[in-house]
Amino acid sequence: MFDRPDQGDQAILVCLDFGEADYQEGVQECTDLVTSAGVAVLGVLGGKRSRPDPALFAGKGKVEELAAMVRGAGADVVIFNHQLSPAQERNLERAIQCRVIDRASLILDIFAQRARSHEGKLQVELAQLSHLATRLVRGWTHLERQKGGIGLRGPGETQLETDRRLLGNRVKLLKSRLAQVQKQRTTQRRGRVRAGLASVSIVGYTNAGKSTLFNAMTKAGAYAANQLFATLDTTSRKLFLNTECSIVLSDTVGFIRDLPHTLVAAFRATLEETVQADLLLHVVDSASDMREQQIEAVNGVLAEIGADGIPQLIVWNKTDLRGLAPAIEYDDSDQPVSVRISALKGEGLELLREAIATLVAATPPSEISREETEPDDSI
Ligand SMILES: Nc1nc2c(ncn2[C@@H]2O[C@H](COP(=O)(O)OP(=O)(O)OP(=O)(O)O)[C@@H](O)[C@H]2O)c(=O)[nH]1
Ligand SMILES: [Mg+2]
């Protein structure tokens, strides 16, 4: 029934949580995510009318359908494109007789594969441990009753307590290392503020073309690829706009719908560049049918990290795919609100530089006092 390639994990996707209009795009995004993680997709279970269907977990029908699909295709894993509680995950695994993971675990896995820098790796590990911690608390309750083994744990500790303690130690260590990284960044930023340079961050949905734009503007050679979450680390370059205006431009990690909270919290050090920016270039893939939802998702994450008050310039990218000419759109008070460009073809970049210069001239560079943020203790 299905083609079965020879190597790597192979998955059945369960996509039940989309509205009718964007069902196909939602399935496509989930498929992209899964293939990004190096997993082959054998089949999709879902449907326009079955979203979000509690019967999936309560009734036997869907679960049996899924189990049959898994057996028929010989899948190694079932990936749910929404959140599952640890208990749901366990119950499903038992019923289907196959490994089950949810969207948050999948995204964490991709980040773990992509992390290159020391900082990136620390952040991903912190996020993974925080995700695991919720599973320790709720998922492993059967271990609470276990007796202590000789030499394995402190006096009177249950296995769960030992696990929590070890996890807690590691989380503490990771946080203190990340705090050091954050300190270095603050020092760098202070230097830039002293030099009177405005800081401009490129933000946007994953795969919108942020790194391509960053490279086109700075000739920096940041990694750009047709792959979700190609960029995990922030890269910054000084950029000369005109005789009166130079800025520091930063390329940042992309956002996605339902980004796990643990990940957002863990990536605070990286996202700090965004939070402290004077202006955000919000890059949108104008050729995507999901662009409105993507803009909303990005604004949601920006609000979560406290960057929703920063002025934004919308950058409609990939206009070459829609045959649109580059242009700036102004509001009633003659301030640029959006620019249409093609980062790949290098079209509209002059207009973008002009729009940035206008907006930066209208906003004074951030005060140093805004940088004295406390490290986040929420995870
Ligand atoms: N046709 C077209 N493709 C583009 C344009 N800009 C970027 N792309 C393509 O879109 C894909 C993603 O580009 P990236 O620059 O890596 O996107 P990103 O936003 O940095 O992605 P992440 O770092 O993964 O969040 C690449 O295949 C680019 O070649 C454009 O203006 N037109
Ligand atoms: Mg990128």
From TrEMBL:
Residues bound to GTP: 204-211, 229-233, 251-254, 317-320, 342-344
Keyword hit for Zinc: no
This protein's record includes keyword Metal-binding: yes
UniProt domain Hflx-type G: residue ranges: 198-364
Cellular component terms per the entry's GO annotation: cytoplasm
Chief subcellular location: cytoplasm
Keywords for the protein's UniProt record, in alphabetical order: Cytoplasm, GTP-binding, Magnesium, Metal-binding, Nucleotide-binding
GO MF annotation terms: GTP binding; GTPase activity; metal ion binding; ribosome binding
Stored InterPro entries: G_HFLX_dom, GTP-bd, GTP-bd_M, GTPase_HflX, GTPase_HflX_N, GTPase_HflX_N_sf, P-loop_NTPase
Compartment annotation: Cytoplasm
Binding residue positions for Mg(2+): S211, T231
Cofactor: Mg(2+)
Domain of life: Bacteria
Quaternary context: Monomer. Associates with the 50S ribosomal subunit.
HAMAP family reported in the protein's UniProt record: GTPase_HflX (MF_00900)
NCBIfam families the record matches: GTP_HflX (TIGR03156), PRK11058.1 (NF008280)
Entries under PANTHER family matching the protein: GTP-BINDING PROTEIN 6-RELATED (PTHR10229:SF0), GTP-BINDING PROTEIN HFLX (PTHR10229)
Reported function: GTPase that associates with the 50S ribosomal subunit and may have a role during protein synthesis or ribosome biogenesis.
Protein family: Belongs to the TRAFAC class OBG-HflX-like GTPase superfamily. HflX GTPase family.
Protein name in UniProt: GTPase HflX
Species name: Crenobacter intestini
